[in-house]
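Appendix B, record 7
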Amino acid sequence: MYSNLSVSVIIPNYNHSLYLKQRIESILNQTCQDFELIILDDSSTDDSRSLIEEYAACDKVSHIVFNEVNSGSTFVQWQRGFDLARGKYIWIAESDDYSEPVFLEKMLPLLEANQDCNIAFCCSYTVDENGNILSDDWDRNKEERYTVNKFNGKAFVKGRMLFNNSIYNASMTLFRKSVLDKIGNQYAEYRYCGDWFFWNRVCLQGEVIRYCDKLNYFRQHSNKATPRAKSEGLIFTEGKYVIEDLSHNLHLSPLQSSIIKGRFLKRIIASKDFKTVEVKKAVLKEVEDYFNCGRFSIFLYGLDKLLNFSSLNIRKNRYL
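Structure tokens (predicted):
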């Protein structure tokens, strides 16, 4: 049997009343009931408050917090939830997503049986506003269903987090609360890339588990912050700091650092999400100036992808 309280489930909500009931019910209906539920509303302007208040008497709900003023950052809300959490593990259940009822039943034993692991994540379906499963498959692996992969944390970050955030949705993860004491709270200073920064820091503290079954539903809709951030280039202007942090914490050589920066610059050039060409040019210049490198780094990245002279194993790590 697990402890009296194994998991603290945190729902950080802002204006997701359309999806909030399904989100909450998918948690309350978990086959594993060893959890508390913390609901945080960041001063929503829709019907979220009245819907949340319907659950105030639920014995699983330990805290409901309504912000009077919007914090401007979901990662500030994460931190508030962490401060309230009493569980051994934490599940950040984003308010517009939902899960299979066996999410905790499948994920919790993985961390209980592997004390050297701080984080476990599953695979996800992407769904539209109405819950229809989309054809996009964001899980870049070729493993059979139900396979459990265990990675060295540094190797995982170097292979799967250096170029893209492979833990692309908080709702697919369960992590050990004690790791928070080791990673600081710098993630809360971000508005758009705090999750990428956060997961990197968590993974670097120990082993990482991936469970190859789709237990999570990652919703795509027009009210998400990510499309707006991409159109204004904020994913890149913030992301450059994450790249710098990764270079430092992975102790990359100058050549390796130049190559990952080249990959990042290539992503900017290839992106079709910018709202105007002028915004794209301004973002590209800002990032180039910050990295103190230019198009030659992109050339190095392309060459290294073929020849692997940096030992980053770019092509191989796509399917780590």
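Remarks on this record: The chain is about 40% helix and 20% strand. The CA atoms of residues 154 and 250 lie 7 Å apart.
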